[in-house]
Design a protein that fits this description.
Number of domains: 1
Shape: globular
CATH architecture: Orthogonal Bundle
CATH topology: Hypothetical protein af1432
Structural class: mainly alpha
CATH superfamily: Hypothetical protein af1432
CATH class: Mainly Alpha
Strand content: under 5%
Bound molecules: fe (iii) ion
Radius of gyration: 15 Å
Distance between the termini: 9 Å
Number of helices: 12
Largest sheet: none
Length: about 180
């Protein structure tokens, strides 16, 4: 199975379950995030990052080393490791950093916490809370911090119950284009 088929298979088989206390399934959440990226006129790699930013939640129970870590499965690191086999840093880095971006925005944007979902506020503590100053500096020094912030903002918007989104298959060509040809 090539990577794009594997991704669709994961969404199909595991994406319909509720998404960590949010009122949407992971499939709906991912489609809404990709749609927000498209609406913003994002580059193809960033639309793919938005679409796949939570794929770590779909693969984490296939991996023995995260089984016992409780609610925070560090899904962003898992997704980055898995996707790095097939996608470049323009896709994997915003994904790896999307939780740090949330912690960064909690530090720097006074209105940010207020618009987070209840589930996202609950997970903030487990994820380490708002970044401290040195961590915020490190985050902003990383080459994909701006892209990670964009993915994070689309992530936060992508929790609307019942919102109609196009079929995920419409992203197939974009995924195939973005995946490295030698491994796709
Ligand atoms: Fe998300």
């Amino acid at each position: 199975m090539n990577i794009v088929d594997e991704i669709f298979d994961l969404f199909e088989k595991r994406g319909r379950t509720a998404y960590l206390g949010e009122p949407v399934s992971l499939l709906e959440h991912s489609a809404q995030a990709a749609q927000e990226a498209e609406k913003a006129g994002a580059a193809p790699s960033l639309i793919v990052a938005a679409l796949l930013h939570d794929i770590g939640h779909l693969i984490h129970d296939l991996s023995e080393d995260v089984a016992d870590r409780g609610i925070d499965s560090r899904h962003e690191n898992l997704a980055c490791r898995w996707l790095s086999q097939y996608f470049g840093p323009e896709v994997t880095e915003p994904i790896r950093l999307h939780v740090t971006a949330k912690r960064y925005l909690c530090r720097t944007d006074p209105g940010y916490i207020r618009q987070l979902s209840a589930a996202s506020i609950r997970s903030l503590g487990l994820q380490g809370g708002p970044l401290i100053e040195e961590e915020a500096e490190d985050f902003m020094a990383s080459p994909y911090s701006e892209q990670a912030i964009l993915v994070r903002r689309w992530d936060d918007l992508a929790k609307v119950p019942g919102l109609a989104t196009p079929d995920l298959q419409r992203y197939r060509a974009l995924l195939e284009l973005t995946a490295r040809r030698d491994v796709a």
